[in-house]
Structures are given as structure tokens and as C-alpha cells.
Amino acid sequence: TTPFTWSVSPALPPGLTLNSDTGEIRGTPTAASPITNYVFTVTDARGAVQDSNPAFKTASITVLPPLPTVESINPTTGPLAGGTLVTINGTNFTGATQVIFGGNVVPSTSFASISDSVITVPSPARAAGTVRVSVTTAAGESVDAAQDDFTYVAAPTITPFTFGSTVAYNS
Predict the structure, then answer these.
(1) If DSSP states are collapsed to H, E and C, what string results for 53-65?
(2) What's the predicted TM-score (pTM) here?
(3) What number of H helices and E strands is found in the chain?
(4) Residue 102 in contact with residue 62, Cβ under 8 Å?
(5) How many angstroms separate the CA atoms of 76 and 102, rounded?
(6) How high is the mean pLDDT in each 10-residue block of the chain (171 residues)?
(7) In the Cβ-directed half-sphere of 91, how many Cα atoms lie within 13 Å?
(8) What is the DSSP letter of 28?
(9) What does the angle CA 160 – CA 166 – CA 167 come to, to the nearest 5 degrees?
């Protein structure tokens, strides 16, 4: 018989709460947590456990860390041969597994995670053009933004000049 009272065990992740009257889970997680099975118990006004419906029994909740974000890169250009040391500034870089330059993956063994907000990485070789630079962690890949563009440029072409040649001025 109604009213029903809801409870959960173990306690929900930090930042989440269970409304004991409705069973609604509310809030914003404040910390990552591993996959955990939670047992929800519903009792009626007489104290009888309502367990005939399997939906009332268990649920798994995983709170993932936030996605990494790229706020800026420096420099924003480099040669086709790669090798430019690029500093990526952003958030949530802890545990970064790879940096991607337009589809070219740079594994974590090839870059330095300076902090949760700074990574330095050598650009891989690539054809001319602008590519997206992204960071991947356990939470996923950073979202595309204008500030994560890196442009590969060809070296300038030098035209030979012969001494004694005539060069037209304002022609």
C-alpha cells in the first residue's frame, strides 16, 4: 500500500541524491566513480518490501570524468615534415591516452602530460592544410572547436637569382 519509501545501497556517487518519496535521482556528480551496482529498495506504508517488479531491484551507474577540452594550441602552424613541439592548453587532460592531429594518432608514449591542463606533443608529418587537434582520455575525445586548429604549411620555394640579371622595377 502507498505511500512508498525508496532507499539505495551503497550510497550514490557524490553530488547525486535519491528522493525517498519518489525514487527520483537528482543532482550533478562531483567526482568520477567506477561502475557500481546499486540496490534500490521500495517499501510500502506497512514496511513490506516491494520486490515483485525486477525494475525496483538494481541499477548500474557509472560517473565518467568530464571530457577533455582544448582551449588553445601554440604554435598553430608547422612544416609538413612534422616535429613542431605543440603546447596544448585546456582542461581534464589527466590520463590522456592520445593526441590526434587530423586523424594522425600520437600515442601517450610520445607526448608529455605536464598537468591536467597542459600537454606538449610533437606534430606528426602530414600533407598541407588545416587539421583538428584533439585530446582523448577515458571519458572520450575533446569536442571540435576553432581554437584546436593546426595548419601544416609547405616550406617556401626559393627561386634562384643570377647576379648580373636585370630585374624590372614596377613593371
Answers:
(1) CHHHCEEEEEECC
(2) 0.65
(3) 0, 15
(4) no
(5) 13
(6) 82 90 86 78 77 60 84 97 97 94 95 95 96 94 94 87 68 56
(7) 6
(8) -
(9) 75
